[in-house]
Every structure is written in structure tokens, then in C-alpha cells.
Design a protein that fits this description.
The protein has about 350 residues and is α/β, with parallel strands linked by helices. The protein has 13 helices and ten strands.
Length: about 350
């Protein structure tokens, strides 16, 4: 019998205390290997749609669910504890580019349901290693903090309310479909992230069961800052009010260049720290050359240095990368979560946290 959601969440917290958890790898690179046609993306449901759909990977949830379920399956088979839903761009804002705003609920609900089916199968087969589904919430292709027009710094292509509503619709459908946690990922604009956090938290006020929140930012270059200008420590202090289950970084950098930022986050965050880097930096052709054993060795060093609690792969990483990562961190003690200093208010004896 499948575990209830409450049982799965309890199992997730228990597993995180016992071992370093492993996330899946890239979905984009694996979908590219399928050499899909426009017809594959459209399927029967969207055969007569008036926008091109090739490259809309999220749409495969509805038109090629066999591919999506197969990718969940292969990542679990090589050692992943957690697999993401294929919903990185499944918001009305991002799907607006394809004219598929009306399909957004179905994309997220079915994406969660597919992941749930595969995860439950693996948990039933290997009850000592339960599998979990993270509802992937991407950054959208709009930013609230920056203007897309260099001649008009005050211009915004989208409003906070629009971003909030898009995220709330996505989060509701992912929850309905059965995810175990929300993964707000590849955050390059912290204001977008705050809209996603509020959307998720507001579901609780509507009677939805609270789910763990995992937040993963992205350092866009060697400056050590997000696109909206924050350092690792500033990013953490901007989102720590959400009391996330985990915080970390993904994308943009390979493991070698990401390490100092993960180390800084590990120093300041009083929660689980995650890292899922790209397979190095892309070459001149946009391809990733870092081999699975190389990525695995980088992450092994992070693990043995006590920096991480959850690891995985982003752009360019394959099931082979995830297998090497899982093998390298197997048996390594997860990072100890530091206790933040507590002081006493002068106006009484109520404890409060000192912000680093």
C-alpha cells in the first residue's frame, strides 16, 4: 500500500538526517537525445494549435507521458532519492510564449501524477529507500527586479501580482497531483522567488496541507552574485523567513566554480544545503564536456568536507552523472545543521535569533 503524503514527508525528513540525499539530473539533455519532432510535442490534443511547440519540453507531460515517466524511472534506478516534475516552465507566463496558458493546470497536475506513480513503484520495490517527488517551480522568463529595456530602467514586463497568481496556479496543481515538496529553483531574481514563496504559503491558508519548501538560487557568473545582485549570504537572509526545508544553488556554474558559494551558504544557513551544478561550463557549441566521474569527484569532496545535505545535477548531467554522484556520496555523513545563536531581548526573556 502506498504511503500517505504525511508519511512520505516524515520519511523525507528522516532520510535527510540519515544520509546525503540525491536529486535527479538534467531533463533537457535527455529529451534532446530523443530527437523529437513537432508532431511529438503536439500529440493529438494540440495537433491543430496555431503556435509552434517544438522545444516546449513541459508539454511532453501531456503528449509523450511515456518519455516523462521513463526519465523519472531511469533517474530513480541510478540512485536518485528525489526526482523533479517536468514543470520548470509550466506557468501561464512561460507558456504564454507557446499560447498554452489554458493547459497550465493540466501540465502541473499530470506532471505531478506521473512522478508520483513512478516514485510509489520504486518505494514499494525498495521500501528501505523511499522515493520522493519535488514539484519544480522555475523562475519564469520575466523578472520583477530588472528592466528588460536598457533605455527605461523603471519598466517591468510583468507585475508582482501576475507572477504571484501564475505561481499560485502552478503550486495548487502540483499539490493536487501529489508532490511531496515544492522546489523553487534556478532563482535569479529574489523578488520572483518571494512571489513563489507567498503563493505556496497562501495555499496553507486555503486548507492545503503544508509541504516542505526547497529554494535553489543561481549564481550567474564568477562575480558570486545572482542576476539581481545578491551574494550567497544576502540571498539566504532574503528568503530564510520561509523556513525552507533546504536552500542551495543550481545551474549556471559547474561544480568547481560553484564550490565557494556552496561553502558560504553552508556557513550561514541553519537548514539543509543543496547543490546541483551543471556538468562544467558549456563549450563553444553549447555542449557540456565534464564526464560523470569528474562531476562525481567534485561532489564527493563537498560531501566529505561537510558542506552539503542534498546533491544532484543540472544542465548537461545525465543518469550516468547521477549514478557517479550517488556512488561517491554513499555512506558519507550529511552536513550537520548549525544552530544559530540565540540571545535574550532586553525587554524580557523572549529569545530571538541574531542574524549573521
Amino acid at each position: 500500500m502506498a504511503l500517505t503524503r504525511s508519511e512520505r514527508i516524515a520519511a523525507l525528513h528522516k532520510a535527510a538526517k540519515e544520509r546525503i540525499l540525491v536529486l535527479d539530473g538534467s531533463w533537457g539533455v535527455m529529451i534532446q537525445r530523443e530527437n523529437l519532432t513537432e508532431e511529438d510535442f503536439r500529440g493529438e490534443r494540440f495537433a491543430n494549435h496555431n503556435h509552434p511547440q517544438k522545444g516546449n519540453n513541459d508539454l511532453l507531460i501531456l503528449t509523450r507521458p511515456d518519455i516523462v515517466a521513463g526519465l523519472h524511472d531511469v533517474y530513480y534506478s541510478v540512485g536518485a532519492d528525489i526526482s523533479e516534475t517536468n514543470t520548470f516552465s509550466a506557468t501561464t507566463i512561460a507558456q504564454g510564449d507557446y499560447g498554452l496558458e489554458d493547459a497550465v493546470y493540466d501540465l502541473n497536475y499530470e506532471g505531478a501524477r506521473l512522478g508520483r506513480e513512478v516514485a510509489d513503484r520504486w518505494t514499494e520495490k525498495e521500501p528501505h529507500k523511499p522515493r520522493f517527488v519535488a514539484g519544480a517551480i522555475g523562475p519564469t522568463n520575466r523578472t520583477l527586479s530588472l528592466s528588460p529595456d536598457v533605455n527605461d530602467p523603471g519598466f517591468r514586463a510583468v507585475s508582482y501580482d501576475e507572477v504571484y497568481e501564475a505561481y499560485k496556479q502552478q503550486a495548487k496543481a502540483l499539490h493536487d497531483g501529489g508532490v511531496d515538496l515544492f522546489l523553487i529553483e534556478t532563482v535569479f531574481d529574489t523578488l520572483n522567488c518571494k512571489a513563489a514563496i507567498k503563493a505556496v504559503k497562501d495555499l496553507e491558508d486555503e486548507g492545503y496541507e503544508p509541504l516542505p519548501i526547497w529554494i535553489s538560487g543561481t549564481i550567474t557568473d564568477r562575480s558570486g552574485r545572482t542576476l539581481s545582485g545578491q551574494t550567497a549570504e544576502a540571498f539566504w537572509n532574503s528568503i530564510r523567513h520561509a523556513k525552507p526545508f533546504a536552500v542551495g544553488f543550481n545551474c549556471a556554474l559547474g561544480a568547481e566554480l560553484m564550490r565557494p558559494h556552496i561553502a558560504e551558504l553552508s556557513r550561514v544557513a541553519d537548514t539543509l544545503v543543496s547543490a546541483y551544478p551543471n556538468a562544467g561550463l558549456p563549450n563553444a557549441m553549447g555542449q557540456y564536456d565534464e564526464q560523470p566521474h569528474e562531476t562525481g569527484h567534485f561532489i564527493e569532496e563537498w560531501a566529505k568536507s561537510g558542506l552539503v545535505n542534498i546533491v544532484g545535477g543540472c544542465c548537461g548531467t545525465t543518469p550516468e552523472h547521477i549514478k557517479h554522484i550517488a556512488d561517491e556520496v554513499s555512506g558519507v555523513t550529511p552536513r550537520a545543521i548549525p544552530e544559530r545563536p540565540v540571545a535574550l531581548r532586553l525587554s524580557g526573556l523572549e529569545p530571538f535569533e541574531l542574524v549573521a
